[in-house]
Design brief:
Elements (H helix, E strand, L loop, with lengths): L6 E5 L6 H16 L5 E5 L5 H7 L6 E4 L16 H4 L5 E4 L2 H6 L4 H13 L3 E6 L3 H5 L3 H13 L9 E4 L13 H18 L2 H6 L1 E5 L7 H5 L6 E4 L6 H14 L2
Parallel strand pairs: 1-2, 1-8, 2-3, 3-4, 4-5, 5-6, 6-7, 7-8
Helix pairs in contact: 1-11, 5-7, 7-8
Length: 254
């Protein structure tokens, strides 16, 4: 079995001004640096990427973007390309449920973004998840397997890919999945990747849980064998809370 380094990613979403981003990083940086055994990634809004990159210089904390276009350049007003991002960060979130829901991103679009990110040597954090009605109808396995196939079909070696399972019914609702339930779904994701690629790649890929993650419940998820970390939303905007989540994750997976 491959040993996977745990990873905690903070997705700030459409929050923080430049001044607020600076204050948040400054408050967290030193304490995050002292935590070993876990990879730490911050994903601020586009406008703060250069500033946060500067503030993180010399640290082990990595930087990610929240989205990107799949084309390298062109007449796409307001979009940001992988070639622009690769000068600023190492990771990029693709297929987040809010992008799928509010901006109508399809599996086809997500697939193009994954390919483009890998081609640019950016590490995609591919988000997958089921809606409440799908969850209650017992269709979670069907839905996430379809999303995995849609995003990765034809990509033989998704080197370094990270996946985040984020049940849509748990995002920003305060209603998190159970550790056992999330672990079962991440197992399904891993099995699907093994069929698409191979067992070795499936065991190397880190799978995070996302959906109302807090310092109070992170332990439940990190105790699960198939869960390698978390994609943290609202709690990543609170320095104390985020540092606690990272510290607990590093300690539990040693």
């Amino acid at each position: 079995m491959t040993t996977r380094t745990p990873m905690i990613t903070g997705n700030w979403k459409m929050n923080t001004t430049l001044a607020e981003a600076s204050a948040l990083v400054t408050e967290m940086r030193e304490r995050l640096e002292r935590i070993e055994g876990v990879e730490k990634v911050l994903c601020p809004p586009f406008v703060s990427l250069a500033l946060v990159r500067e503030l993180l210089q010399g640290s082990s904390i990595k930087l990610g973007a929240q989205n990107m276009h799949f084309e390298e350049k062109g007449a796409y007003t307001g979009e940001v390309s992988p070639l622009m991002l690769k000068q600023l960060c190492d990771f990029v979130i693709v297929g987040h449920s809010e992008r799928r829901e509010h901006f109508k991103e399809t599996d086809e679009i997500v697939h193009k973004k994954v390919k483009a990110a890998l081609a640019a040597r950016l590490t995609p954090i591919l988000c997958l998840g089921d809606r409440l009605e799908e969850h209650e109808a017992g269709k979670t396995e069907e839905v996430v397997a379809k999303q995995v196939r849609g995003a990765l079909e034809g990509i033989e070696s998704p080197q370094g890919l990270v996946i985040a399972y984020e049940p849509i019914w748990a995002i920003g609702t305060g209603r998190a999945a159970t550790g056992e339930g999330a672990n079962a779904t991440t197992g399904i994701i891993r099995e699907t990747i093994a069929r698409l690629c191979n067992e070795g790649i499936a065991q190397e890929i880190r799978i995070l849980y996302g959906g109302s993650v807090t310092a109070s419940n992170i332990g439940e998820f990190m105790a699960q064998p198939e869960i390698d970390g978390a994609l943290v939303g609202g709690a990543s905007l609170k320095a104390e809370e985020f540092v606690s989540i990272v510290a607990q994750s590093g300690a539990m997976k040693r």
